[in-house]
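Input chain follows. Return C-alpha cells only.
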Amino acid sequence: MERWFFALPVPPPVHAGLLQHHHGTPALGAERPADWHLTVLFIGVYPAAALAELLPQVAADCARLAPVPLEVDGLVPFPGVSGPMQVARVRDNGPLRALHGCAGQWRNRLDLAPEMRRFRPHITLHRQAPQAEHIALPLSGLADRLGLYGRAAKGAGQRYRLVADWALSGT
C-alpha cells in the first residue's frame, strides 16, 4: 500500500519567487522544488482500489470549485515532527476554505480519523531548519488544479508523484 495526499501544485509565479529563497539540498532537509505543494488532505497509507472509489466525487467537487488564489505573505518557522521547518505561509481564503471543506467530506467517506490539527496552509521549503527566520515575501498566483499524489519510487528524483489531477473550474 502507498501513502497518498491531495494537494495544490504551486503556481508558476509563486514557484519562481520561492526559488530565489531556496538553499540547500535534500540531504540537508531542503525540499526539492519539484515537490513543492500545498497539502489539502493527507490520507496516509490506504489501499489504492478503495481510494479509486472516491475519485468520481473528487472530480465532481473540483468541477464546481473555483480556482484558489495562493497568496504567500512570507517565509516563517513552522513546528515540525523532527524540529523547526521553514515554510511559505499561505493566506487562508474563501476558495481554499471551500476546497478544504470538501476534503473533510472526502476524509469522512474514506472513514479516516478526524484531523485534530488546525488547517494552516503552507508550502514546506525545508524540513529541517533550526535557523528558520521570518522573511517578508509577498507572492501570489492562481492554483487551478488539484492533484492526488503518492510516494515516488526511490531514485526517481522526486519525493512525490502525481497520480491524477482535476481542474478547479467552478466559479
